[in-house]
Amino acid sequence: MSIFLDSAQIDEIKRALQLSFVGGVTTNPTHIARTGRPGLEVLTEIVDLVDGPVFYQVTAHSLAERLDQAWEAHELRPDKVVIKIPGTTENMRLVAQLSEAGVECLVTAVASPAQAYLAAQVNAEYVAPYVNRLTRQLGDGVAIVRDMVRILNGTQTQVLAASLKTMDEVVATLLAGAHHITLPLDLILALGDHPFTQQAIEEFNASMQSTG
Ligand code: G3P
Fold first, then answer.
1. Using CA atoms, how far apart are residues 170 and 175, in angstroms rounded to an integer?
2. Model confidence at 33: pLDDT above 70
3. What is the total count of domains within the chain?
């Protein structure tokens, strides 16, 4: 069960890696665009920083071009780069072909357990439901994660939940059985803190000071 950082900002990645519990980095085309740099250049810098997996999405218009993009990214660091491919029926061919060749794939933006089922049929390593977006657009993103986890039980395909916006949503998603989560830096930094704990620390510090 891994926690990933959802970002392509190098300063955020460096900060997250200092924490020692962040297992890798998920990027998406929006994150890459925000850097203002070419995707493969950013990817190269990220894989040099991160020990674990780095997820990179293919975006080209045709299937053949997306396949070329996938190979180009994979060959940068075959041991680290995981190819993100949006979950369409057509794209499953791409996932099948890449998985068969030993390239790890994540089927992204999946919204239904049927898509997760199909991703497992073509040996995807991961599926990524966007929990908060699903809740906003379809009603209950956490319930969709729960159904995906049930359908994927016994397959090699794992749920990597994305688009998590609050701590409650993170916990509900983990309780629904998500195998991995990816979070923005602010949520990662908030994971280990709680006002109750802070209050206890302050009380203990006050006790120490009063006893000299
Ligand atoms: O990487 C895709 C996913 O993280 C989207 O999240 O925050 O744009 O809903 P968000």
1. 9
2. yes
3. 1
Cα separation of 17 and 34, whole Å? 20
Q: Rounded to whole angstroms, how far apart are CA atoms 110 and 91?
A: 12
User: Can you give the CATH number for the domain in which 91 is found?
Assistant: 3.20.20.70
Domain span at 107: 2-210
- Establish how many alpha carbons lie within 13 A of residue 145's alpha carbon, considering only the half-sphere containing its beta carbon: 32
CA-proximal residue: ligand 1, atom 1 (nearest) = 28
Rounded to an integer, what distance in angstroms lies between the CA atom of residue 193 and that of residue 185? Answer: 14
The mean pLDDT value of the chain amounts to 97
Q: What is the mean pLDDT of residues 113-119?
A: 98
| CA–centroid distance, residue 209 to ligand 1 (Å) | 46
For residues 156-170, give the mean pLDDT.
Answer: 98
Does the beta carbon of 134 sit less than 6 angstroms from any atom of ligand 1? no
Residues ≥6 apart with Cβ < 8 Å to 175: none
